[in-house]
Amino acid sequence: MPPYAAFWTAAHVRRREIVIGLAGGTFGVLSEHAAIVRGQPGVWLPDLAVGLVFLGAGLLVRRTAAVDTASPATGTATLLGAVAVTWFAGNIAWPALYWHRGPLLHLLLAYPGWRVSSRLGRLLISLAYVAAVVPPIWGSDAVAIALSIVFVAGVTVQHRPGTGTAHGARRAAVWAAGALGAVLIAGAAARMTVTAGAAVLPALWAYQVVLCAVAVGVAAGLRRSRPAKVADLVVELGETRSGTLRDALAHALGDPTLQVGFWLAERHQYVDPAGSPVAVQPLGGGQAATFVTRNDGPFAVLVHDAAILTDPALAKAVADTTRLTASHVVLQAEVRVRLAELAASRRRLLVAGDDERQRIEQRLRDGAHGRLVRTMATLRSAAADTEAPEALGRAYGHLDGTLADLQELARGLHPRELANGLGDALAALVERNPTPVRLTTTNRRYPPEVEVTAYYVCAEALANVAKYAATSQVTVEVAQRNDRLCVTIADDGPGGADLVRGSGLIGLTDRVETLGGTLTVHSPPGAGTRLVAELPLDTEQRISSADFGRKQ
Asked: Does the residue 22 lie in any domain?
């Protein structure tokens, strides 16, 4: 809203309040002038004060509701004004003497709002208006005592100890009803037991004092509750450092039964943080559901006491805060997942390193070390053997086999062919593969760690094809797409490869993700296997992607 529009709106509201106040005050003075007790200041001044207090309280609450006409304060302001008008009307005509008790009891039953949702509340409000317009009902002291008890009990039941940010307001309504009922019962009892003339004026003064207290309490409660509820809720949820979103919302709204569900698209239902479904329909037992959307789609749901979130401003604040806080929770969950994946990857790399060292040790012991021991024994025997040339030939054979073992072992530690580039290394790898391979690659050079990882991806994939896949054709494609090197290995075998269960593929995943890349496998049964590794070529991108979990 432009500043000038806000100015004119505020000015219009102020003018209307002034007009209503002047009109109500004038009507009150005229009604007191028309009353038969106008010559007794001790009677008409307190009477005028009661009407003006209700009128002022209504205007004060109306200013609270001026911006948001859907606020419960709008109904409360109307009822306060109705009490003031009907109070003054009782001075003009005797049948209107009890009219004010209709909107007054309506106010206490519906506070802090205008409408009641229960059948009991609607029945009591109807009874209040009927009793107010039929003077003999409240005019009978015995009936007045019975009605007072009924309405105090009804307000207590209507505002039973419950939950929510409006709990304090409902409790205030119960106290106000109790005070009003007590003064009505006391006045009726006094008139029944004491001389009527002596009891009338003290009972009237006590009644007027209680009425003024009710008006002030109602206005002060709404004046404090509406902006404070929203502000306190946002501050409390914004400062939450521990616990769950559900706990924070339950505490802020005062509803320990509150449930929070998040939309799970794949299951088409709301679930709580533990994954259990959250029922949103049908709801009973005084519960209601508030749905929170994000990007025009379902995001979360709050299942809560139906008595809370009746204020649209509060409901909007809860939805906005839930959306913001839940998004933060989702981000935190993603970071925790990445941290867990990083920790698991590091553990696997550590275990894989230990296993690889043990494998190399065992291979050296069984291969090169054993051959060297046998060669030494052969040379010793050759020194004392007359057939030395034959023994030396066997020793030469042992040494030749040992050299071959060491060369093969060295090739496994670091591909020697990579010295001439990834293209030549893959060409040599393809030549040694027993299955025909169609290779498409490039002669460009890439960072050493990228070339090594790409080579091992191809080597592991081709080894798996040779072991498990009855395939007739394998294709290997290495191509640069923007700032990423894409390695694709595809075969026409039986498929069914599992990225999770295969230890070799898990090791490749760790190696690829260490560089900030991704490894995906598409292997439907009976339709072959397609493995794609994407490796970032930019150094900063590799570092930021690989260290995401640690930096967070």
From this structure: yes
In three-state secondary structure terms, 148 is: helix
Same domain, 109 and 53: yes
Same domain, 173 and 266: no
- Among residues 202, 230, 258, the one where a domain terminates is 230
Asked if residue 37 belongs to a domain, the reply is yes
Residue 42 covered by a domain: yes
Q: What is the pLDDT of residue 273?
A: 72
Which domain range does residue 438 map to?
Answer: 420-551
Residue 451: what residue type? E
Residue 148: what residue type?
S
Residues 506-521 have pLDDT tens digits of: 778 878 887 888 999 8
**C-alpha 399, offset from chain centre:** 69
pLDDT score of 232 = 55
Question: Do both 181 and 299 map to the same domain?
Answer: no
Strand pairing of 529-536 and 518-522? Answer: antiparallel
Q: Could you give the number of structural domains in the chain?
A: 3
- Cβ-Cβ contacts under 8 Å for 72 (sequence gap 6 or more): 112, 113, 114, 222, 310, 311
Per-residue tokens: 29: 């003075």
Which candidate, 400, 396, 395, 401, places its Cα nearest to that of 374? 395
Record the tokens describing residue 520, joined without a space: 């995906």
What local confidence, expressed as pLDDT, does residue 111 receive?
Answer: 85
To 10 degrees, the CA torsion angle through 338, 344, 346, 349?
Answer: -130
The yes-or-no verdict on residue 292 having pLDDT over 50 is yes
pLDDT tens digits along 426-446: 998 888 888 889 999 988 899
Residue 420 pLDDT more than 50? yes
**CA count, 13 A, side-chain hemisphere, 395:** 16
Contact present, 478 and 454 (Cβ < 8 Å): yes
Q: What is the CA radius of gyration of the chain?
A: 43
* Confidence at residue 266, expressed as pLDDT on a 0 to 100 scale: 67
78 found inside a domain: yes
- On whether both 459 and 546 belong to a single domain, the answer is yes
Tokens of 310: 């009746």
**φ, ψ (nearest 5 deg) of residue 488:** -125, 125
Q: Which residues pair with 475 in a beta bridge?
A: 438, 490
pLDDT: which is higher, 98 or 162: 98
